[in-house]
Amino acid sequence: xxxxxxxxxxxxxxxxxxxxxxxxxxxxxxxxxxxxxxxxxxxxxxxxxxxxxxxxxxxxxxxxxxxxxxxxxxxxxxxxxxxxxxxxxxxxxxxxxxxxxxxxxxxxxxxxxxxxxxxxxxxxxxxxxxxxxxxxxxxxxxxxxxxxxxxxxxxxxxxxxxxxxxxxxxxxxxxxxxxxxxxxxxxxxxxxxxxxxxxxxxxxxxxxxxxxxxxxxxxxxxxxxxxxxxxxxxxxxxxxxxxxxxxxxxxxxxxxxxxxxxxxxxxxxxxxxxxxxxxxxxxxxxxxxxxxxxxxxxxxxxxxxxxxxxxxxxxxxxxxxxxxxxxxxxxxxxxxxxxxxxxxxxxxxxxxxxxxxxxxxxxxxxxxxxxxxxxxxxxxxxxxxxxxxxxx
Length: 392
What we know:
CATH topology of the largest domain: Carbamate kinase
Low-confidence stretches: 211-219, 375-384, 386-392
Number of domains: 2
Distance between the termini: 56 Å
CATH superfamily of the largest domain: Acetylglutamate kinase-like
Shape: globular
Radius of gyration: 23 Å
Helix content: 25-40%
Structural class: alpha/beta
């Protein structure tokens, strides 16, 4: 995505985050007409070839209404009970509204560990990609029934940014009762200016974020700016817009008021920068000349090209790829645990099922999870040899 791209129609994949106050009314519960309207917007985008993922707040807000819980802050156990009741109702409502357009909804509940721990990150990403491949719309929320204060995202703005990064989305759209970023709270400062385009989230931009949040939600402009730092840093543009109109996505497409945050790079470049920036790799994959040439041509690392597996690592851990001259040529996320990688090293991808007992991935490291580094550093093997020589 280029820095100048603003149109939803120009994107291949977007994440839309919906705030609780848009979906749930304190007195009447779910705002069915609003939900039907945004589902119509999603269906229209999908028909235009845009893949849409939805991060939907509202489970706790809906559940507390159903349970008749009092207004004000809820205890942790009350929030979790409300989430349990609200999530099942929310998933049903999304499914029903999308089904009017012959679209299937798939529910995904995430905890912080699902995007912070690499193994679970890969599993969650694979599920998202498979749902999109099958034409379904992922409806995502934090798993508030099990997440505690210490191990949670804390708001769906930041969750949506993590999902956008995970999915390689080009655009994150945050819909709420806030229509964008101002230089100061407009209800307090009559001279506050609306910012339609933000090229970079600077300390000055962060200082403009107030703490406004409604009782039905946990977020505010502060969390939206935090989400923006996550998303734009991963190469994903972000829009903050009002979701109050019945067709908010259509309104954005037609030029409605919103703030647009420029990405810092492309999703692929930023993601591979993240991989390359990992600390000491958990293991090494030593490859032959053919694999080395294939990697430099942008191909995945197949088991057949791996000569040796060193280290103890799990699927999703960062591993160094060592070339024929004993130097690191790439880093990537392992597609297999170390023991399984060792068993299939040097073998053809078609033999994996017979060796492991299940149909595994064709690649030891997929090209989407791999970045060429071509750096000169001593490998673990060289370090051991140096240590042995020192003690000889």
